[in-house]
Amino acid sequence: MGHTLFGALGLFSLNILLYCGHAQGVPQSVLTVSPSWTSPGDSVTLTCSVKPPSAGWRFFWYKAVPDMSRYSYYTYELLAGGTTGTEQDSYILHGQTHTAGYQCRAGRGDPVSYNQYSYVKFVWSGGVNPAASLTVSPHRLQHFSTESLSLICEGNSAEWRVKKADEDGYVSSCSDWGEMTGSTCNIDIRARSGVYWCESATQSSNAANITIHSVRHPVLTVSPSWTSPGDSVTLTCRWRFFWYKAVPDMSRYSYYTYELLAGGTTGTEQDSYILHGQTHTAGYVCGVGRGDPVFYTLYSDVKFVWSGGEFVQTFIFLHKGINVLFVLTLFVLCVS
Ligand SMILES: *[C@@H]1O[C@H](CO)[C@@H](O)[C@H](O)[C@H]1NC(C)=O
């Protein structure tokens, strides 16, 4: 089993290395926007750079237009400057009024040969747009992942989608972390902190920073639990921690099952766990729970201990305690 996993990972990393080797020769377009939060009427500067730097480029500027017929898609519309592009590597948007995404790419030669499009970068508006608004309901100072939270879109459109950008700029849609009913997105336990906004084919709303805290349930013990008049009672609040090893489930693509490590179903009171004599690559998950019998609450992301010096980051989405839905492994080898 271990060998098969290693074989598969080996092939995968070889592919990535080949891909990286190929990509190194191709100049990349990198877009930056400043500022990324605006008030109505502000100007925004888009800057497009080519990596690795070289001369003779013209720059082409695009605005992302939501394609409502396809889940999560955008089409890209050329900004003024059009098909001839601009010589300057920056572009100023005057009087920015609402949330929008932009892309750039550089090209040179005749006929123009373009390099790849940059990643899309959003400029968010905190200001009210009467044609499109996002309401966060209920309004709270802080949100917890187990509480219900609705994101309501209102304005001149029958069809809305709710989007979210995380810290790294990765953009996802309501159905990735909630359920869209009409123009309301009801988030579920998968929702994380980020910038949220509404968009329709022609409008986009104000954006809101929403911070969502994960809930961890503590364990309360009282001692003694039977008292005589005048006794003192100690209340102690603790977490209980559970430790798992990820075991690849070869019968199902990309699935792991989780095997409890020593400490077992009673868990440990310490929040750390020492693995002695680690010899091979393995994934681990921890969980926090409470109660007797233990009612499991939240699990961590899986973290791999990677034997051989490579660095792997794995994101794992756990769904209602029933193992793993989806495992995506990114080899950070590419970046270096
Ligand atoms: C959201 O957070 C960013 C970064 O902290 C801040 O610059 C921006 O003003 C916030 N926007 C709103 C509408 O609160």
UniProtKB/TrEMBL annotation:
N-terminal signal peptide: 1-23
Residue ranges occupied by any Ig-like domain in the UniProt entry: 27-120
GO biological process entries: cell surface receptor signaling pathway; immune response
PROSITE patterns: IG_LIKE (PS50835)
Keyword Signal (UniProt): yes
Name the UniProt record assigns to this protein: Ig-like domain-containing protein
Keywords associated with the record: Disulfide bond, Membrane, Signal, Transmembrane, Transmembrane helix
